[in-house]
Write a structure and sequence with these properties.
It is a single chain. By secondary structure, the protein is an alpha+beta fold. It contains three helices and four strands; from the N terminus they run αααββββ. Helix 2 packs across helix 3.
């Protein structure tokens, strides 16, 4: 009986190309997998940083002041009444602080008459989530400017 001989094909070009392609394919798959994991980790972080949260705070305070101005509450210059009305109009997750300066108008000039400060006292006025705004309003008497008011406010998340 004759012995069978087995020949091992040693085609160097085919073997290297297949191994080389398999290595590139595996490396490319790992890069894509890492990118997907990175994106999946980044997307929830993007959702938690609402870029409009500051504008929502400012809009809420502006809406409250529009309402109080229309009702004539701001012109009464009573910090307790203004504070109560703002608290009822603002969302509960926001804290705020306000300063209103009152100026009289005579002879084409304004003279400071009074100032009130009220609202939450625990403001971190240099905080990242702090919004600052200003509202100017007037009171009239006999079709003339009686008082000019400069209301500045700070709003932040509790």
């Amino acid at each position: 009986m004759e012995k069978m001989r087995y020949f091992i094909s040693r085609s160097t070009n085919n073997g290297m190309r297949k191994g080389h392609m398999l290595t590139l394919d595996a490396a490319f798959s790992i890069v894509i997998l890492m990118a997907l994991v990175g994106i999946m980790g980044y997307v929830p972080l993007m959702g938690s940083n609402d870029p409009y949260s500051g504008l929502n705070m400012q809009r809420s305070m502006n809406d409250a002041l529009d309402l109080l101005d229309a009702q004539g509450v701001l012109q009464q210059f009573d910090s307790n009444k203004i504070s109560t009305e703002i608290d009822s109009a603002m969302p509960v997750q926001y804290s705020w602080r306000m300063r209103i300066e009152k100026f009289s108008y005579a002879n084409d000039s304004f003279t400071e008459r009074d100032e009130i400060n009220f609202g939450a006292g625990d403001a971190n006025l240099s905080g990242k989530d702090l919004m600052h705004g200003r509202r100017l309003f007037l009171t009239f008497k006999d079709n003339e400017i009686e008082y000019f008011y400069d209301a500045q406010y700070w709003v932040w998340v509790k």
